[in-house]
Amino acid sequence: MGSSTLINADRLWTRLMALAEIGATPAGGVNRQALSDGEIAAWRRVIGWAREAGLTPSTDAAGNLFLTLAGRDGAASPVLLGSHLDSQPTGGKFDGAAGVMAALEAAVSLAEQSDRPARDVIVVAWMNEEGSRFAPGMMGSEAFTGERNMDAIRAARDADGISVGEALDRLHQPFPDVPHRPLGFAAGAYLELHIEQGPLLEAADCAIGVVTGIQGKKTFQVVVEGAEGHAGTLAQQERRDALAAFARMASALHAEIGTVDADIKFTIGRVAVVPNAPSVVPSRVSFSIDLRHPDNAVLDAAGARIAALCQQNAAPCAVTVTPLVDAPSNAFDPRLRASIAEAAREQGHSAMEILSAAGHDARHLAKICPAAMIFIPCRDGASHVEHEWAEPDHVAAGASVLAQVLRELAFAPGIAV
Amino acid sequence: MGSSTLINADRLWTRLMALAEIGATPAGGVNRQALSDGEIAAWRRVIGWAREAGLTPSTDAAGNLFLTLAGRDGAASPVLLGSHLDSQPTGGKFDGAAGVMAALEAAVSLAEQSDRPARDVIVVAWMNEEGSRFAPGMMGSEAFTGERNMDAIRAARDADGISVGEALDRLHQPFPDVPHRPLGFAAGAYLELHIEQGPLLEAADCAIGVVTGIQGKKTFQVVVEGAEGHAGTLAQQERRDALAAFARMASALHAEIGTVDADIKFTIGRVAVVPNAPSVVPSRVSFSIDLRHPDNAVLDAAGARIAALCQQNAAPCAVTVTPLVDAPSNAFDPRLRASIAEAAREQGHSAMEILSAAGHDARHLAKICPAAMIFIPCRDGASHVEHEWAEPDHVAAGASVLAQVLRELAFAPGIAV
């Protein structure tokens, strides 16, 4: 079974590039913030393509977009597949969009080439995966799976003070003919294609990544409180220098948490110093911690040491450590992983198992149904940058593997998997 | 000799508070940037008060303001005394202004109460001591003493791109009747009154600080260059994490330079992280170092270790250490210090010797003539803050001591000291 028979690779690439014109940046990237005019324009274009093929759009209270290819048995649990349409502020053409467009192409090709599937096939674009306009990210999939309630989601505000609630109402307003469905439904399976956002597939010259799972992640916000003072007059022994305490903490954290084993990822990425003037002893330093590991036991053990290491190095300052994200590792469904590997083999694409270091909406879907992901390579492993790039052949290969697994699920008798 | 006989304390306080209305902030402080409309307004007010008493204003190419009480012998080297009128953005009513107004009060009282002095008495307000609008500070006194040339000074620009040259021309424009004098002249002596900006006089319940000198200061700018990466995907052993390297450097610097002895002052006050996002391994950290010590040998030895400590902790990142300021400690003139102490004793004010931890224009004047400083207490040692405060009694005491030393110098035969 060759990839040319399952999807129209040229149409997919042409549409993906057309989508990238919405929110295009001068440097060749994409800035398409969640619930922005750009996302509304993307909805309009994607809905148009879906309707041409007979797919029916719908949405929900969380601003997720669904495009349904109706199956013969409306009572059977549907196959769900997709990704997201929002981007980072200086993002690229592929992160998110490639997964939605590959899913749409797989569904459209299925509609064109096959009998009506046994069950509904639903392409989805989740709301605010990136979290760059409204924090935290993955709001759409969290609302869908019941991880987060809509009151909390609607209350989050962007830098201009606009709430998600206001922005959601504004998103829905220009689509009066797109019906609303209840939040969440029983899905039979979930599939997501995404660029790897790392260098492993490219380094291995491999077209398809069979994603084994998503590594666990914990994040923390740490605030060190000292006292301001004149750099020339305040005696060293009387200082409560928040920067000096931060330096000790960060040094100890990097040395002790950052060296747990070869799989640990420990990052202090954001630091804010107050008042941040050369001749003033800093009164306050706040910083972020991002900790990831594929083994939940290791992740938990490392995470549990963070507050103590901060406390041990704080004196004479005070420190508070606030956990923000606690997302354990998950393993994707073994049968779906096997189907992806088998489809790649049949189509003649090199494939390898790969762990996702970054988070994806599939993490949440995996809690309510069998789920899996397909990775394709991206140049230099670069993502969240304007020069982010995936080769057309890799996009086509990934979409074709997705299409093959979709067909197995869509025509399977009974529950999809 | 009581202080009430040498100056008019009420007039001094009233004028100092009137001056504080120019650039007053809602929180009770002062924002009067160098060469701003506020400084022009302050010039207008101060020149008016000086002319009432028969003092003659003049200026120079560096925007220093001189108010001359003419002496009998125009060829004798004048006594120079003053401070500065510019402030920090959230500064107070006293830093700089108290010294100019005390000098003006001493000169005006001298004009009112005495015969014509033997030599010229010149009150000065130096241009841009603070360095908050245009960096570096002390431009006026550095230009006057030949430390820095006017081309370099005129080229410096503020955050809006306005050059010192443009701002100087704008300062001089509304004062066509204030003549220009050549830059620099032979001064017989220089006196400067200032709030302490530290807690020592207040803690000792002492009205007058006889300043022994200004401690030496070195500053550095350090840049750590690493490589950006995804916090979830980039393996720890492949990272060139600029923040991790900075943490090691800052920790080592605080531990080894910050503990040299009880007199060392070591501060990392400003840190900039690039790109400063929670999920991105930092590619670049730049930070400031402020190092001070009264003993030049200790200061030099500590300063010489900084680059090595940075280098030792940089790998696998690169680091560059750029020296910015190298101002050795100075000792003020022993005879002037003795005169200040004696005046305080005669007037019944408690006095103590004190080292200035902060820099002042007197540092530069001390290179060309005998110079000394008088400190007065400030509440809680707080300065460069809007609640900066000096008690009226302390302002009067300091000005009266200044006035007494001024009279000794102004009527001394031959060279002033």
Brief characterization of the structure:
The structure is a homodimer of 417-residue chains. With 417 residues, chain A is α+β, with helices and mostly antiparallel strands.
Characterization of the model:
- Chains A, B: Its cofactor is Zn(2+).
- Chains A, B: This is Allantoate amidohydrolase.
- Chains A, B: Keywords: Hydrolase, Metal-binding, Zinc.
- The structure is a homodimer of 417-residue chains.
- The first copy, chain A, is an alpha+beta fold.
- The first copy, chain A, has 2 domains: 3-213 and 330-411, Zn peptidases (Aminopeptidase), CATH 3.40.630.10; 216-327, Alpha-Beta Plaits, CATH 3.30.70.
- Helix content of chain A is 35%, strand content 22%.
- Chain A is built from 13 helices and 16 strands.
- Chain A has helices at residues 3-6, 9-20, 37-52, 97-113, 139-144, 150-155, 164-172, 200-203, 242-256, 296-312, 334-347, 362-365, 392-411, and strands spanning 56-59, 65-69, 79-84, 121-126, 189-195, 208-214, 216-225, 229-230, 265-267, 271-274, 280-281, 284-293, 318-327, 330-331, 351-356, 371-376.
- In chain A, the strands form 3 sheets. In chain A, strands 1, 2, 3, 4, 5, 6, 14, 15 and 16 form a 9-stranded mixed β-sheet that branches. In chain A, strands 7, 9, 10, 12 and 13 form a 5-stranded antiparallel β-sheet that branches.
- In chain A, strand 1 and strand 2 (65-69) form a beta hairpin.
- In chain A, helix 2 packs across helix 13, helix 4 packs across helix 13 (392-411) and helix 9 (242-256) packs antiparallel against helix 10 (296-312).
- The longest helix of chain A is centred in the C-terminal third of the chain and has 20 residues, at 392-411.
- Chain A is globular and about 80 Å long.
- The mean pLDDT of chain A is 95.
- At the A-B interface, helix 9, strand 9, strand 11 and strand 12 of A face helix 9, strand 9, strand 11 and strand 12 of B.
